[in-house]
Structure formats: structure tokens, C-alpha cells
Amino acid sequence: MRPAAVLVALSIFSLILLRGQQPKDDQLAPYYPTPQIVVDKMLQLGGLKAGEKMFDLGSGDGRIVIMAAQKYKANAVGVELNESLVRQSLDRIKTLGLGPTAHVIQGDLLQQDYSSADLLTVYLLPVGNELVTPILEKQLKKGARIVAHDFEFAAWKPVQTLAIDDDGEGRSHHLYLYRR
What we know:
7-stranded mixed sheet
């Protein structure tokens, strides 16, 4: 993990702990759009196949859900708390005619059922990964895959990692693949 990312994550987590609050979804996954090249690499690393069920936790503007449905022909579901981002995602899904295979749920990503997932993609802060870990351990079926963007799951060992040196915007990224 890059030092700047660690600093941001620790600062947010420290503020949450000092206030004695349970983290909210926007503190688990503040909206930061994943570059398209990274979206594609996440789905490739996860081995997404046509007809599989995938979830994107903290789906933002829906770009991962849309690519999963459009390019990979998967049954893709995003989970997003922000109403405006959900509307934006649903409008784009409708415009592209992806309604049968792309969906976005407005809700708390810690309150969803992921038992049907073949693949999950996550771009959460470390606190988010930590909070969702027991949910995924309980719900995910054997063989399900998880691809984490930039922040590892501390409780699990990745089966594969991928470094993306330049996303086209001069930023590097790290992806981590896990199997249940």
C-alpha cells in the first residue's frame, strides 16, 4: 500500500474512532472513480465469465457494473449508498440498454446478501475491508473470488497481485485477488 493512501485511511479511521461512531458507507468507500483501464484489469484478474453473478461494493457511478454487463456479459450488481450516484448509474444502464444484466441497489453495503456472488470487486478503505470481511466469510460460496483495488484484506492472503504502473493519468494501482 502506498504511504499517502495509508495516511488518508488512518486519518479517516482515527476520526471515526475518536467520535465513537460506527463508520458509514461513505467513510468505508468515499467516491473516487476507478480509471477504465483499472476497471477492465479488475474484471480480468477476477476471471469474470459470461453469465456469472458479480457485485461491486460501493459502486459509485456504476462503471464496473456497466463494463461487467456490457463487455463480460455478466449479471452485474452494484451496491451504492449515495442516491445521486445510484440515479446516475441507473440512467446510464438504461441508456445503454443493459437493464436485464446490470443493476444497482441503493443501500448499505454491510447489509446485503452476497451469497450468490461468483466475483466481488471492492475499492474500500482498509476499515471498510475489515468490516466487510466477516460478512463475506459467512456468505460467500466456495470458489467465489474477490478483487480489491489498492487496499488489501488484512485477514486474507491474496492468491495473486497485479501492479498497474500507469492508469493513463500518471497514477499507479495495485489489485489483489482472493478466493474463498
